[in-house]
Amino acid sequence: MKRLPYGISDFKRIKRDDLYYVDKTMYLSLLEDENSYLLMIRPRRFGKSLFLSMVEAYYDVNMKDRFQELFSGLWVGSHPTPLANKFQVMRFDFSKAGGDLDHLEEKFNRYCCSQLDAFIYKYKDFYEDWVVKAVLATNRAEDKLNIITITARTKELSLYLIVDEYDNFTNDVLAHHGKEKFEALTHAEGFYRQFFKLFKDSFERILMFGVSPVTLDDLTSGYNIDWNISNLPDFNSMLGFEEKDVRQMLAYYKENANVRGDIDDIIEDMKPWYDNYCFALKSFGRETVYNCDMVLYYLNPLLKTGEPPENLIDKNIKMDASKLQMLVSLDRGAKREDRISSIENIANRGYVDMRLETSFPAKELLDRNNFLSLMYYYGMLTVGGGDPGLYHMIIPNECVRQQYWRFMINIYEDWCPQPIKPDQDAYREMVYNGVWEPVISNIGKAFLELSSVRDSIGGEHNVQGFFKAWLGVCDYSILCPEMELNYGYSDFVMLPLRNHHPQAKHCYIFEIKYVKQSAPAEEANAKYVEAEAQIKQYATTPRLLKAIHGCTLHGITVLFRGPHMEPPRPILKFEVYG
């Protein structure tokens, strides 16, 4: 049985060790039909490094004798392109070139030198000894690169440049050291900018991958030959897994491993959490892709134990919420508040309508559309419709939605002078044993605490957003805001993750109501009557009854009078049997 390549991005190692590989070689032909200098931007954990490793092996002239070994059984093995094994391939991964601020240039130069030394040693049979010695003798990366490219051009040798994480190095500087240090690298005579200038006219083909378009725009006058294929429909599924890929993988392991259950049921479990990324407007409604790292994360315990992971979100994904924190912390004042407000509105509504910017300089990063565009490139939004002038961007899946809610919890904690944190033990009691009062009471106390320092937190919209964030970070259930039930939309439905927490026996419908602090009792009572009717209407929906099979359903109304939460009213509680 082929093992999973979880955490492995070396194509030759995957083939050598006979690991499972999702074939992406059919895109090589499409890439060759495009311009010679290509840029692809995708969020992290979509298989960029593995794809580039495959590209390197395919075009490397030194790999010609291993073509069948590496590509037999793959699409390109039966459909080789004219450029197969025609190049000396130079590769940089700039995520490995970072360092503390005082030694950035030194570490960058040292990393590039090591890569260039490895290149000239690998292809030494194509160069005279004096060229090899000259490259190895100098300790400046710019000089090494110039010697190699000028000599290759003289000898009519074809060079292919691959750059992985082209923006990681400078984005790290932007995140941790601010815009001034970033601009020193990418403007005027900055060493990073100067190195990129050498790429022009030096390579026959260039393929660069990254996460954001920020850096490249700052390098435009130094490197202005790229063709951005990130939003072209032909390449929508080049990175990540299509559903057919996931089904094929599941079918293979169901036949060869300890995978129990129906494939459709496994897909139904995974799809809301990992699928639904779309990167081309013309692809919307036709094809979406899964985050491939999360698929492998899910399959890893499934193959070993026959059971899916207890937690559907890899801890590394949870850390991505820190990127939002970084983006809003680049400065203080009104623009920071605007960014927080934008994120809060997306978290509450699930979408935003915006212009998609394909390139912007760092100094304009904080402009609204640039900031929202960066959230799209980070994978926090994805194409959900619209037109080229105004994209309708949506939160792709539950995995990302939880990142929004965790971000909002962090923001609430920053605002509040007293510690306010969700209690996962209390959530467990709520979902396992039906003890919901401590969770709701804690939310009410936290909201009152926050209201004492944030006048803007009041109002029904913000009350619902606050509840959504707190209930959304529960590890034992999935929160479904505005679920359509019996021709209406419930405020919140909490469904237990029974496949991952079989002891979870309780689910919830919440209706959140709000009246001003000065509202008369009649207005508050009318809200209770309205909520009771809504909950009873929703509770009999066949769709909901199917989803909560075997659980006890609780219907609860929570009324806020200004910032003060009234004692919640349980409307109904009954067990549902299919």
What report would you give on this structure?
This protein has 578 residues and is an alpha/beta fold. The protein folds into 4 domains: 220 residues, Rossmann fold, CATH 3.40.50; 70 residues, no CATH class; 78 residues, no CATH class; 160 residues, no CATH class. The chain is built from 25 helices and 16 strands. Strands 9, 12, 13, 14, 15 and 16 form a 6-stranded mixed sheet that branches. Strand 7 and strand 8 form a beta hairpin. Helix 20 packs across helix 23. The model has no long low-confidence stretch (mean pLDDT 88).
Strand-helix topology:
Elements: H1 11-16, H2 27-33, E1 37-41, H3 48-59, H4 67-71, H5 75-78, E2 88-93, H6 104-122, H7 129-137, H8 141-154, E3 159-164, H9 168-177, H10 179-186, H11 191-197, E4 205-210, H12 214-218, E5 227-228, H13 243-256, H14 263-274, H15 292-305, H16 315-318, H17 321-328, H18 334-349, E6 351-354, H19 368-377, E7 382-387, E8 390-394, H20 398-415, H21 424-433, H22 437-451, H23 460-472, E9 477-481, E10 484-485, E11 488-489, E12 492-496, E13 506-515, H24 521-539, H25 542-547, E14 552-561, E15 564-565, E16 569-575
Parallel strand pairs: 1-4, 1-5, 2-3, 3-4, 13-14
Antiparallel strand pairs: 6-8, 7-8, 9-12, 10-11, 12-13, 14-15, 14-16
